[in-house]
Amino acid sequence: MIVLDHVSLALGDFCLRDICLRVGRGEYVVIMGPSGAGKTVLLETIAGLRTPENGGICLEGTDAAGIPPEDRGIAIVYQDYSLFPHLTVFNNVAFSLRLRRAPEPEVRRTVDALLDQFGIIGLTDRYPASLSGGEQQRVALARALAAEPRILLLDEPFAALDPAARGDCMRMMKAVQKGQNLTVLQVSHSRDEAFALADGVVLILQGAVAATGTPGEIFQRPATPEVAAYTGVENIITGTVLSTDGTFSTVRVGDCRVTFLGGVPAGTSVTFSIDSEAIVPGREGEVAGGPHHNAIPVTVAGILPAENHIAVRLEGGISLSAKIPQGNARISLLQEGERLVAHFSPDSIRLFREGV
Amino acid sequence: MADITRSDPCMTAFWILGSIILVITVLSLIAITVPEILDLPHLFSVATETGVIGAILLTLSAALCAVVFLAIFCTPLSYVLSRSTSRWKSVVETLVDIPLVLPHTVAGLLVYLLFMARGPIGAPLANAGIFFEDAFLGIVVAMVFVSSPYYINAVREGFEKVPVHLENVARTLGATRFQAFRLIALPLAARHILSGAFLAWGRAVGEFAAVVMIAYFPMVVSTLIYHRFTTGGLAESRSIAFIMIVICIAVFVIFRWMTKKAGGYDHDRA
């Protein structure tokens, strides 16, 4: 088990701020966040490679303060795998065993078993520079497991792999973690990896924990606008409620008025998002709607085709992004600069925060 | 792949500019080699002189001692400098580089002031029977002083090129900080360490001014060449210089072979 209790650490202009975290034994937790958020620094702090200025770290119930990295029972695998370039694959994997002076027959038996488990027994005498990314990653994992760690820290281990190799390595990693009941903390930028591997997700923004939860909680029901922005939610807008009838409320955003489902007292400042897939750009009167339907005059500012949809940037009283399914014949005729109306229903709006 | 420098006017111009120094070097080597080859009996007689052999052995052994001293005491300093983020780091780096900017006579004077029998370091050691003036130890100290920046800077650069991640991984695999240094940083910086050692050795072998300030005798090769030049003329000193050139080129060839071996893992065995 890993417990971080209000851990803070400054590194030049960057700092980790008041990190509180609890990872149970045998859990697989993915740490996410934008580049520079402090994810790698957090892993290195847990590993004992950096010393927190405030707060404490407990590993398996023991205060880790003063315990050097070599005695923590933690192995780390970096994104670049950090194989020792002057050692063969065999000697890389045997590194920890030889440090603890294991007898040479045991070293050979253990290393061979690990190389066999990871399907790299044929690489024994090769040097890291001659290995592919996938092979290097397997060697790095085998080397880490040879140290028999209680906790495994993985810093974007699958980021440099092609999709096929990544899938294989993820399956292998999950099997190893379950088989050995390892506690794994993995840094990742990938939602797919989080959904495939993680029991829990920790989102780090600007050096602080912004959200914790299951992948579903983080990505499908983000709790705050900041978390929503990281997870890719578009059209996050702040305004002030003008009026409410208890079922619908109308909020003023600049010169525009937006109606959403829910009763919020007038004068309340609210932050909400509009589902980009629910926005339909059309001409005046082209899209029918109920009495509370939203219709915002906009100009088409940009059109960007993607695999399954067309992303349309709409500028007006509110700047909006709309995702239109591919194959929509009417949308395919849109022109940049065209003046339209952005239609969306009140129930396509999700309220994040209310304040006075 | 075609050599893009062949038809590139800019690169050609750079080659021409750079060739000036190459021409000077080659011409100077020819200028000293030809007369020596044409008078082999004289070269042989000089090469077998006891005084010359003694001066060469003294120079090589003193330079080797200086490099060993640098390896033991300055390799850790180079490592610390490569890993330190302290605000005092630049002060230490300036101190390290001071011998580079001093006139060598000044460097020799500094060494003499410290290590003479009345100096702050020399006096207590003289009481213990250890002398530096006109002694082998004085030569070694002068060589260490003037060659230390070459060694420290080359080795520090080597350690800086070893990713800290590698040592971090080694630590989490059970290595102490010293084991991570010994098993990871040191072998990976080996090429730079050898390079620094060779630079420092070459600088030490060639040192004259700093050495004569503390130890005119016993004569190192530089002192002997100067002595013969001022007392016996060009022919007397040229043969000794030629012998030293041959020795230094031989050492350089061995050094190149060693550095190639030391860094071979990243491409040769791939």
- How large, in whole angstroms, is the Cα Rg of chain B? 22 Å
Which overall shape of chain A is indicated by the principal axes computed on the Cα atoms? elongated
Q: How would you describe the oligomerization state of the chains in this entry?
A: heterodimer
CATH superfamily of chain B: MetI-like
Task: Note the beta-strand portion of chain B.
Answer: under 5%
Largest interface, C-beta within 8 A: A-B, 31 and 23 residues
Spatial order of the strands forming the largest sheet of chain A: 6-7-8-3-9-10
Query: Beta-strand level of the residues of chain A, as a percent range?
Result: 35-45%
Specify the biggest β-sheet of chain A: 6 strands, mixed
Q: Give the helix tally of chain A.
A: 9
Topology-level CATH name of chain B: MetI-like fold
Structural class of chain B: mainly alpha
Residue runs with pLDDT of under 50 for 5 or more positions of chain A: none
Question: How do you describe this structure in short?
Answer:
Chain A is of the alpha+beta class and 356 residues long. Chain A is built from 9 helices and 20 strands. The mean pLDDT of chain B is 93.
What keywords describe this structure?
heterodimer, A: 356 residues, alpha+beta, Rossmann fold, OB fold (Dihydrolipoamide Acetyltransferase, E2P), 2 domains, elongated, B: 270 residues, mainly alpha, MetI-like fold, 13 helices, globular
